Amino acid sequence: MNKNIVILGTQWGDEGKGKIVDYLSTNSSYVVRYHGGHNAGHTLVLNGKKIVLHLIPSGLLHPKVIGIISNGVVISVSELVKEIEMLKRNNFFIENRLFISDAASLILPFHITMDIVREKKLGVNAIGTTGRGIGPAYEDKIARRSLRIGDLKNEKNLSIKLKKIVNYYNDQLLSIYKHKPFDYHLILKDLLEAKNIINDMITDTTIMLHDAIENKKIIIFEGAQGSFLDIDHGTYPYVTSSNSTIGGVITGTGVGPKNIDYILGVTKAYSTRVGNGPFPTELFNSIDSYLSKKGNEFGSTTGRKRRTGWLDGVALRYAVKLNSLSALCITKLDVLDDLKEIKICIAYQNVNTLEIYHNISFSNLENIQPIYETYTGWMEQTSGIKKIEELPKAAKNYIKCIEKIAGIPVHIISTGPDRNDTILVKNIFL
Ligand code: IMP
Description:
The protein is α/β, with parallel strands linked by helices and 430 residues long. It has 2 domains: 4-96 and 204-424, Adenylosuccinate Synthetase, Chain A, domain 1 (3-Layer(aba) Sandwich), CATH 3.40.440; 105-201, Adenylosuccinate Synthetase, subunit A, domain 2, CATH 1.10.300.10. It is built from 11 helices and 20 strands. The strands form 5 sheets. It has a 10-stranded mixed β-sheet with strand order 9-7-5-2-10-1-11-15-19-20, sandwiched between helices. A hairpin with a 5-residue loop joins strand 16 (341-350) and strand 17 (356-357). Helix 3 packs across helix 4 (134-142). The longest helix is centred in the middle third of the chain and has 21 residues, at 155-175. The model has no long low-confidence stretch (mean pLDDT 95). The chain binds inosinic acid. Inosinic acid binds at residues 13-14, 39-41, 127-130, 132, 134-135, 224-225, 229, 238, 240-241, 274-275. Inosinic acid binds next to helix 4.
């Protein structure tokens, strides 16, 4: 039986992980966010109502699920409080069901400013970050000068540490970017206010998870971003600042690899990327406009238009290996419904040497162009289909081709944004 499941993205994020976490959470006791911060945007549609979560684990919308934000996440407490209040307004009650690691690092206002002013200075070479302070916050974590959630519990120490780090940032902001300094009193006041709201949620989440494992509870680990935004394995430097591949689960929670039973790679039926950086199958024609419009490919965090492209089989095969994936979940299949032809990239070719690559490191994607296989489209509506038998023959064929390219089976297919628009090819909890 699969007990503990990781759900992560195999592309550049925005694969539709939130919906799948929510869908599978019906069977779980715990759902854990383990890396990234409020750069993520998980859109859920429940009975026609849209909820967007950035920090709170998607599974928490189920009334009995316990949500954990573990040590690997960087947390803006003001954003967290906003999200808690948004859920309350929408009648989701999370009292005694959300826990936050005392070892998680804080995102503070100067991290956000630093992210924005640095990107501005980079001009055309900008990463295209979400401007949420993610990079600077993780820098502080690695440099061992972070304030952590646990620091909120000791007002005197918090005040001393905060003063030091505010001075550190004010020096740089003023001298390099001519930005006005931050007043540490104001930041302290906001932190203490937020602390009053989240105080009872702060705990050692690693111990909590070890206890849950001992008690044979089902845990879902909810990935953010996607494999090729990983700081080590992605299209560096056009990446985020955390490990969005499988290793992030281990370091980001304190749960060992033997306690993971199944790893589901969520893959959109085509590709998208938001922000700058290599994107081999990117489209610049009318298919791009079609995919953006039909797939509503606009960022749920920043509202930016996502770049779109065909499904990249080379990237997918690499993601399967990077993450030891057990199976795939294909999302947004219905977005392809009106296309006469659909392509999948099966290899890359070096434009200078004409050498063909079936496997390649994603930190080195220069001078390559995709080689495609073309499939006939199904030109029929698949949205809302709940049984694999009901899919058109050409759509079933497309899924089979993905399985062949990836070398692993497809266990779930999503045919629409609603929790119920889902085909469960195999019950993964059996
Ligand atoms: P950062 O994570 O804000 O530093 O942004 C670094 C890169 O990751 C940029 O290209 C962002 O657009 C991208 N990114 C960060 N979070 C997400 C996400 O949740 N979905 C898609 N792209 C993301």
